[in-house]
Amino acid sequence: MDFALTPEQELFRRTLRDFVAKEITPVAREWEESGRHPAEIIDGMRSLGLFGLTVPERYGGLDVDMVSFALTFEEISRGWMGIAGILGSHSLACLLIARHGSEEQRLRWLPGMASGACRSGIALTEPDAGTDLQGIRTTARRDGDGYVVSGAKTWITNARSAGMLPVLVKTDPAARPAHRGMSLLLVDTASEGFTVTRDLPKLGYRGTETCELLLEQVRVPADCLLGGVEGRGMQQALSALETGRINVAARSVGIAQAALDEALTYTGRRQAFGRPVHDFQAVQLRLADLATRLQAARLLVYWAASRADGGARADAESGMAKLFASETAVTAALDAMRLHGGYGYSKEFVVERLYRDAALMSIGEGTNDILRTVIARRLTSGETRIG
Prior knowledge:
Structural class: alpha+beta
Order of helices and strands: HHHHEEEEEEHEEHHHH
Strand content: 5-15%
Largest sheet: 4 strands, antiparallel
CATH architecture of the largest domain: Up-down Bundle
Shape: globular
Strand order of the largest sheet: 1-2-6-5
Distance between the termini: 15 Å
Helix content: 40-55%
CATH superfamily of the largest domain: Butyryl-CoA Dehydrogenase, subunit A, domain 3
CATH topology of the largest domain: Butyryl-CoA Dehydrogenase, subunit A, domain 3
């Protein structure tokens, strides 16, 4: 077993770390608090080619391996998790088209998405259907040479900035089981009847918009059906979410690393009874636990990413990584806040933002309790073996 990054991955990480240190960390607190649009950071990510992480090279993308994919979200989240969200949903949309789209769809969308000229997300969740995607109500009725789409979506990242969104719909609402009647349509957001109705107020995860959408009799050409065959939308979406869990797990590692960094800096600087507080055993025990859980989470994420790179089914592995890493992020942020004492509760210190951002990690891309059932099903079926 080799737990080291390759020279190429190390160089990629250094490039990301330098970018975050120069362009994100210095402005994160001020811009997050004010709600300022991070246009300069987005331009920087474009120049690095990060919008093409999951786009094949022949369409202008980086087509990075999954460990490098995880490194991207870890390093950016170490500076500001909300910024990682701008790339997260976009990368899943790119992956959907690269993996399941027709060649015409790839040629139409992927070059612009790789450059960041066309941004995207993925519109799955509805007001009454989150974890239970088979319960969506958005429909796409065939009409002549296209579809007429009606419904509502919520918690959609990048909704206002997207030029196109893959939208999960029911092309056959009567199908049983329901997933057989579900499809993904690539919807041009400039279409008549497509409306972003509002931005959702959030505890954390700022820096990227998260919105509600309304689709009122939106006409979508038939050639915008992902892959050209109806009834495959659920499977297509789930294949992307497997990668999405690596993304969220890596973001969690970035938050936990930032929490450790802040805790070490503060406890080394803060004096009590004539010496740094990190000299006290109670503080040392908390720091040791935090660092150990963080490194375990990181290795679990890289393991899941490596499994995905090998072409193997990795829903259990990515689920384990997301489950453990997100719980680690929550614990690490709270521990760092405690180690800061009263200052940890102040917006003047980074740990307050880390605490707010960490909470989403245990919810996004499948709640942790749902992931526990996914992992358990794979274990009890014998499809995944541990040890």
